[in-house]
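step 3/5: co-fold with heme C
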Amino acid sequence: MQTKLTGRLKKSNNFLIPCFGTIILSLFLSFSHISYAQDEEGPSSDQSIVKNGESLFKGNCTVCHGIDEVIIGPALRDIHERRNEEWIYAFIKNSQKVIKSGDEYAVELYNQYNKTLMTSFDFSDEELNAILTYIKDESSKEVQVLVADASQSIGDGQGGSSVASDNFYLSLGLNLVLLLIIIFVLFRFTNLSKKYVILKDNQSKGKLLDDKDLEIVENRFDFKKFLRSNKFVGVASFIFIGVFVKSCIDGLYTVGIQQNYQPTQPIAFSHKIHAGQYEIDCNYCHTGVNISKSANIPSVNICMNCHNAINTDKPEIQKILTAYEENRPIEWVRVHNLPDLAYFNHKQHVAVGGLDCATCHGPIEEMDVVYQYSELTMGWCINCHRETEVNAKGNDYYKKLVELHNSSSKKPMKVEDIGGLECSKCHY
Ligand code: HEC
Ligand code: HEC
Ligand code: HEC
Ligand code: HEC
Ligand code: HEC
Ligand code: HEC
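step 4/5: write tokens
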């Protein structure tokens, strides 16, 4: 009997040692995520000017220009070697003026780019200098063939690190819990087995044991008996019923709610590329947000402003070109759908209320495919009207209302105070 027990103990050691090993290894691995090294930037003449130039360039020029890519306008690598500073600055300020002055180079370039108008920019000399310094700095770097892919992988890297840190805390937590459980079990087990050895010893010496001790010595774990025991059946059915009821309630609450609805669109249009990477203003395409009830989905013409020249050989762009030629609209699938009985107005919320698109639509500029970010239930509208203060900036009518409100109440004026909870405001 004794040998059997020590054998068992040994076996359990065989089992526990690799267990500890795995946990310590995975703890080590989780910690190694912390030291996440980041690439240093290359040397340059004046980092702050270059930085400033970079943000001006990205904010105003990347829609049409790359360093190595022809987008709508030419690639700008080594522009300072093609043209002198004076010419470049004049062209950025007002390209049409330079072209109309009869400058041969400018006229030829203009014709070469199908007479596409470059936007005029009202930059100071300092800003112009910063942009040019940035382009020079980029030009001094090695030719990057896949500009888009490179920036993508930088983005992925950052995403990766935040995911890694989430995973880190999760795995650290799980590991600690596992470790505690094992220490506890091991502790109980060694205590019991010590007692078992002593009792066995006593028994073999012929001492009488009381009932409790006998139970320890002769204990055999009966799995079948355990499964049939009242305790087990009780706990198991409690968990089962709990899970069942919870999922029923969740199901009932989501009837008619389309949150996260993400239909497939006829063209693989990506907000991540257009609004994110190229920072095109939402208003450029959704022309109604500031002036009307509806935000508007852009017509084919708006796409054609750029795609008569960009990526015309790609199959997804071919779809735009055909639709344009056949004078037929693209059949986008609506993502957001309030029922007809409810009235919602974009101008009221964006232009008057001063709300960001992201408050209601989430991080659209990170979405390849748009999904419905908010619940769009009546409770969602009402909650926000209860919590949000009226934006009275630059609105004399509201300023008077706020004064009136403040004379009778200590709380700030919320949307509910101007009638944001009245049924008739939202229901026809
Ligand atoms: C709406 C698109 C558009 C935007 C935005 C734009 N450009 Fe242009 N750019 C062009 C086009 C098209 C040309 C080619 C000439 C033409 O058609 O007028 C051009 C030409 C140029 C040239 C001459 C290139 C050469 O090879 O000689 C320079 C320099 C230039 N742009 C700089 C800029 C800078 C700097 C910005 C940002 C501040 C900018 N552009 C923003 C469209 C644009
Ligand atoms: C280059 C044009 C363009 C730009 C810029 C743009 N969008 Fe869009 N947007 C579209 C097109 C096309 C659709 C319809 C296809 C789709 O749903 O992806 C759309 C759909 C949407 C929808 C879903 C509409 C529905 O069907 O209910 C929302 C919300 C939206 N955009 C918000 C934004 C926001 C916020 C921005 C700025 C961060 C933005 N868009 C910038 C073109 C654009
Ligand atoms: C202001 C300029 C601009 C407008 C307007 C615009 N796009 Fe784009 N679009 C771009 C640029 C820039 C790219 C990225 C080119 C690249 O990196 O290869 C792009 C890429 C795309 C791509 C990916 C092409 C591919 O397969 O690589 C699709 C699809 C697309 N656009 C659809 C649309 C649609 C649909 C509209 C109209 C709702 C639209 N775009 C309006 C500038 C524009
Ligand atoms: C207060 C919340 C809120 C804000 C802020 C908001 N939207 Fe919306 N948006 C909605 C709701 C609600 C709908 C659904 C409207 C419907 O179905 O009638 C919607 C629908 C849309 C649609 C689909 C077309 C349409 O007009 O129904 C687009 C596109 C859109 N929004 C773009 C934007 C853009 C771009 C901004 C920022 C300039 C913005 N939204 C700000 C709540 C908001
Ligand atoms: C993120 C907050 C927010 C959400 C969500 C929101 N609203 Fe509003 N709403 C506002 C604000 C802020 C105003 C006040 C605008 C102003 O200054 O006139 C407003 C005003 C209104 C008004 C005018 C009220 C009045 O008395 O003039 C109506 C109608 C309205 N919202 C309808 C809706 C509907 C319908 C929904 C849901 C589909 C909704 N809102 C969701 C913030 C929100
Ligand atoms: C801030 C805007 C707003 C106000 C104020 C408001 N509602 Fe609504 N209501 C909505 C929206 C949006 C929906 C649609 C919700 C959905 O589709 O889930 C809705 C849905 C409803 C529905 C359900 C219809 C259905 O098909 O399920 C009823 C009933 C209703 N409202 C009654 C009222 C009454 C009564 C009041 C006044 C006490 C009121 N509402 C005030 C925005 C509002």
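step 5/5: annotate
Residues 47-145 form a domain with the Cytochrome Bc1 Complex; Chain D, domain 2 fold (CATH 1.10.760.10).
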